[in-house]
Specification:
2 copies of one chain form a homodimer. Chain A is α/β, with parallel strands linked by helices and about 350 residues long. Helices cover about 30% and strands about 25% of the residues of chain A. The first copy, chain A, is built from 11 helices and 17 strands. In chain A, the strands form 4 sheets. A 5-stranded mixed beta barrel of chain A has the order 6-9-7-8-10. In chain A, strands 12-14-16-17 form a 4-stranded mixed beta sheet, with no helix packed on it. Chain A has a two-stranded antiparallel sheet with strand order 5-11. In chain A, β16 and β17 form a beta hairpin. Chain A is globular. The relative contact order of chain A is 0.15. Chains A and B meet through β13, β15, β16, β17 and α11 of A and β13, β15, β16, β17 and α11 of B.
C-alpha cells in the first residue's frame, strides 16, 4: 500500500522572528489562510494517501503542537525523534516502521513546510511517481521545472529519459546551491531542475540503498528489525537513534546510488526557505510590496515584505527598498532582503548575548 | 506668593505611535527614567515653588492620568479644561484662579513635556525671573541660547538690555519657525533666542495685558470674577470656557504687548517636539544611533533612533540611515527622520481609514 511520510522536525531559523525554536515555520499560518504549512501539507496529500497511512516524523519537543494542529492523526502515526539527525536517519527509521506494517509498501517522503500552488499537478505527480517506483527498485525524486535562476536551491541534472515514460529521467547529477552565474547557465540549459526534497520509493528499495551506500546507518536501524511497529519500537529508538550520524538523504543516498530517477514537474512550488522566496510567492501591490497579515501604510517603499504576527498591527513605513520588515512577539527585524542569509547568524548572536527568550 | 502653572493638555501627535490621544507625550516615560515628562517637570519646579502652589491645567480627559502620576497634587490644584482652546484661555483662567487665591501672586507658566538638562540653571533662571517680574508690570519669557540653527523653534530677538540687570532684555520681535537659511542668520547674529514657552509675570500684570490686547478673552473670564477659587468656579468654566477663542499666548499677548522682556538662559533645553529633537537630546552610540528602552542589534545603521514601549523587545536592523524606528502598542513606524513632519498627516489618514484604535 501507499504511505506518506511528512518530515516536520526542522527549525527554520531563517524566518526569525516569526519562526522560533518553540514554533518553527511548519507550524505557522504563513499566509493567514487559517491553516499552518504543516496542515496544508497534510491536507494536500490526503487526495493520494489516506490519513491513516500518513506518518509524521518530528522532534519530540514538537509532539504537543502536532497533536494540536492535526488531531485527526492517530498517535501511532507520529514518530518522535529523540534527537536531531537531519533527514537520512529519519527516512531510514520511517522506512523500517512502514515496512514492518506492510512489506510491499511504497512511500512518498516530503517536507512539511513548502508551498505548492498547483494541487492537481501535485496529486498527479505523486500518483505517477508511485506507479513508477512500484514497478521496480527505483529511487525517485521530484524535479521542479525552474522558472528563475534561484541560488537558494539545489539542482538536479536530467539524464536519459526512461523508455516508455514521459517526464521520467535518469539523474545525471545533483548540484549544491549554485552562484547566480551558474544558476543562469542551469536555467538556460533546460537540463536542470530544482530539488524539492520530495522522494518516492518502495520501503524495501530505500532500505536496500541504505545498506549499500550508508551501511553505518543501515546497521544501527537494522538492529531494531524485530521491534518496528511493536510496543518495543520507541524504547529501541530512544536508545539508539542518536547514535546514527547526522546526514542528509541527498548526501547519504541520492548522490551515490545508481538507480536514481527524477520526475520533472511543474507544481507552483517554493520551499519558502527565505523571505525572498516568500516574497516571490506572494501577491504584490502596485509598488511591488508584499503585506502579510497586517495593515500597512507605506510611502515610497518598493520590493518590501511587511509581516507581523498580529493582524491588528499597523505598519507605517517610508523609504524602504527591498526590505524585510517582520514584527513578531518580542522581536522586530528590519533588513534588506539581500542580507537575509545573515539572519541565522544574528539569531545565534542574540541567543548568546540575550539568552533563549528571543530565538 | 509665587505660583507655578504646568500646562499639560497637549496631544503631541508627532510622537505617534508612542504618544496616543489617550496617552500624550507628557505622560510617557520618555527616557526610561521611571518618571514621565510631566513628573519630571513637576519635580523640577518644586525647588522654586512648593507643591501646594503648583497648578496643573489640562483637558479633563487626562484627569485620571494626572491623579495617577502625581498623587501628591491636591485635587483643587488641577484645573480641568472642558475644551481645547490653546494656551491663551488656559493662561487667562489660571491667572484669574491664582489672583483670587492671592492678589499679589506671581506666576511661572510652563509646558509639561520639555526637557531641561541643567536643573540648577533652571532654578536660578526662575528665581531671577520672579524677582524681575515682581518688581513691576512686566511680561517675561525665557529665551534659550541657541546651539544650532533649529528650524522647529520660534525665535525671540533681543532689544536693549534692562538697566541694572544681566541677561534681561526688552524683546524686539518674535519670529515664527524660520527656514534653515534664516535660522543660520539668527544663530550667527547672536541676537536671537529660542522661544521655550516658559513665561513669568504677576497675575495682575497678565490679566491687565489680556484686557488691553485680547479683550474678547478678558471679558469672558472677567465674568467669573466672583467665582474663581470658590465652589462655583467649575460650573462657570464648564459653561463659558469653550466660548473663548482658541489662541496661543504668543499671538494673543506676547507679540502685541510693549512690556515684554526676555531672560536669556542656557538650560540644556529641548522641546522634544520631534523625533529629531529627541534624537539630538539623547546619547548616541559609536554609529550615531540612539536606543530608547529596547535592545538593538544593528548592522550598518547610522543616525537612527530606535524606540519601543517594551523594554524586553529586541530590534534587529540593518542598512538604515537617519531613520526613526518606533514600535509601540499596535503600531510600528519606520521612516526617515527628515520626513517626520509627515507623521501628523499619516496619523490623520490612519484615523480616517482604520478608526480611532490606532491614534
Amino acid at each position: 500500500m501507499r504511505y506518506c511520510v511528512i518530515m516536520c522536525g526542522g527549525v527554520g531559523s531563517r524566518f526569525w522572528p516569526f519562526s522560533r525554536e518553540e514554533k518553527p515555520k511548519q507550524f505557522l499560518d504563513f499566509f493567514g489562510s487559517g491553516r499552518s504549512l504543516l496542515q496544508l501539507t497534510f491536507d494536500r496529500v490526503l487526495e493520494v494517501v489516506p490519513a491513516e497511512r500518513v506518518l509524521l516524523v518530528t522532534n519530540r519537543r514538537y509532539a504537543p503542537m502536532i497533536r494540536e494542529q492535526l488531531p485527526e492523526v492517530p498517535a501511532e502515526n507520529i514518530l518522535l525523534e529523540p534527537a536531531r539527525r537531519n533527514t537520512a536517519p529519519c527516512i531510514c527509521w520511517a522506512a523500517h516502521h512502514i515496512k514492518a506494517l506492510d512489506p510491499d509498501a511504497s512511500i512518498v517522503t516530503l517536507p512539511s513546510d513548502h508551498l505548492v500552488l498547483k494541487e492537481k499537478a501535485f496529486h498527479e505527480a505523486l500518483r505517477r511517481g508511485f506507479e513508477f517506483v512500484e514497478a521496480g527498485d527505483r529511487l525517485l525524486t521530484l524535479g521542479i521545472c525552474p522558472t528563475s535562476p534561484q541560488t537558494g536551491y539545489g539542482y538536479i541534472q536530467q539524464g536519459d529519459e526512461v523508455a516508455g515514460t514521459a517526464d521520467f529521467y535518469k539523474v545525471r547529477s545533483f548540484t549544491e546551491k549554485p552562484n547566480l552565474e551558474l544558476a543562469q547557465v542551469f536555467l538556460s540549459s533546460g537540463e536542470f531542475y530544482w530539488n524539492a526534497g520530495i522522494f518516492l520509493w518502495r520501503a524495501d528499495a530505500i532500505l536496500k540503498a541504505f545498506e549499500e551506500h550508508d551501511p553505518e546507518t543501515a546497521q544501527i536501524f537494522n538492529a531494531g528489525n524485530d521491534l518496528y511497529a511493536t510496543p518495543g519500537e520507541m524504547e529501541f529508538i530512544n536508545e539508539y537513534f542518536d547514535t546514527a550520524p547526522s546526514n542528509s538523504i541527498d548526501y547519504a543516498i541520492m548522490e551515490k546510488a545508481r538507480n536514481v530517477y527524477v520526475e520533472t514537474v511543474d507544481l507552483g512550488w517554493s520551499d519558502l526557505g527565505s523571505w525572498k522566496a516568500l516574497y516571490d510567492s506572494s501577491p504584490h501591490d502596485a509598488n511591488g510590496n508584499v503585506t502579510q497579515k497586517c495593515r500597512v501604510m507605506q510611502h515610497d517603499c518598493s520590493g518590501t515584505i511587511f509581516a507581523t504576527d498580529n493582524p491588528q498591527q499597523i505598519i507605517v513605513a517610508s523609504g524602504l527598498e527591498n526590505y524585510v520588515v517582520a514584527d513578531a512577539g518580542n522581536a522586530l527585524l528590519i533588513c534588506p532582503i539581500a542580507e537575509e542569509q545573515r539572519i541565522r547568524q544574528v539569531v545565534n548572536d542574540i541567543k548568546e548575548r540575550f539568552g533563549e527568550g528571543y530565538v
